[in-house]
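# nightly structure sweep
# worker-07 picked up a monomer target from the shared queue
# config: single-sequence mode, recycle default, output format = structure tokens
# input follows
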Amino acid sequence: MTADPVALRGLAAHPCFVTAQTLHTRLPAEGGRIGLTTVYRTLHMLAEAGLPDTARDPSEGQLFRICHARDHQHYLICRSCRRSVPVTSASVERWASVLGHRHGFTDVQHVIELTGVCAACRSRAGDPGSHAGHSASAVRHLSGYAGD
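# output follows
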């Protein structure tokens, strides 16, 4: 089974994370017409091969985006517009490794979902961003990764 080229081109055309349904809806506008089942099948086949970045949205399910980095990556994703910003955290990687070692595990893998509302969406909604102080305390907490 091969990936549908229309679905692959459609995914590549979107810089933000998208759901299968959103991608399917946008394909006719980009010159492609395929079934929703084909979009799902293609996206899941690509995900199994590790080609798109994936994330979970509690309300909409799995999100997909063309993978630009080959290394393990985390993203901060806007819940409104789906814009994503790659983030790195050596302390999270160390924490996962130390925790696995402490409990006798090897080859520890993890998934961390970071979501929020970006500044552009917040300003469109008229929110001045009153939660700015939380990110610094969260970073201080993560840097002390010893707890389990």
